[in-house]
Structure formats: C-alpha cells, structure tokens
Amino acid sequence: MLRTFLAPALQDFPGFNSRTWFQQDGATCHTAGASIEAIKELFPNKVISRRSTINWPPRSPDLSPLDYFLWGYLKGKVYDDHPTNLSQLKENITSEMRAIPTSLCQRVVANLRSRLEECQQREGTHLDNVIFAK
C-alpha cells in the first residue's frame, strides 16, 4: 500500500516536497521492517516514528494531531449526511480532507507546540487535558 498507493498519491499532492516530514506513533503495528523502509524511502531523514530518524513513543495521542484533532473532526464531517455505501463514504472523506481550511491546520499546529512544551515541562508524563479544552 505504501508503494502502490501512498507514493503515487504524494507525487500528485502539490504540498509534498523535500521539506515534508512523516509522523506516526511508535506502535509496533506501524513499525514493521518493510513498512519503515518504505517510509524512509519516501521521506529520507524525515521520519518521526519508532526505529527511524526521530524516535516517537508508542501510544502518544496527546502529541499526535491525527489522534487529538483529525479523526474526530473528520468523523463529524464525513458522517453528517449519513453515507449509505463505501463509495459515498470515500467521496465524503476525500471532499472533507480537501475542505479543511489552512487556518484550522495552523491552529492545530500551534496547539501541538503547546502540547510539546507542556510534555517537556512534565518530563514526558501525561498531559493535563484541561489546559487544551476549548
């Protein structure tokens, strides 16, 4: 999938360039040898994951924008019109991903910075979710 789907999709994505990083948590299901090697080929020296350029701890949802923001945000948008088949679901996912405003992404990244600083101050312990509430 990484070589046959992700690699071609990245080449067609205008935001993908030599400054693009790949991040995933260090869960063992994400870090099989073949998977890590394929990711390292696509993102040379720009992989944040277990067994890669920058080690990322497993099960760190407080520090993963996909976990603390994207999945919940997309679920709310994608299922809003109650898709009834796989084709409609895929279409909803694609259109909602494209519709995410740049300003929202900038706020998520700013929040990640706050989370990273808090994690550093707490020497890697769990974050106090109250400080990130709306």
UniProtKB/TrEMBL annotation:
<protein>
    <recommendedName>
        <fullName>Tc1-like transposase DDE domain-containing protein</fullName>
    </recommendedName>
</protein>
<dbReference type="GO" id="GO:0003676">
    <property type="term" value="F:nucleic acid binding"/>
</dbReference>
<dbReference type="InterPro" id="IPR036397">
    <property type="entry name" value="RNaseH_sf"/>
</dbReference>
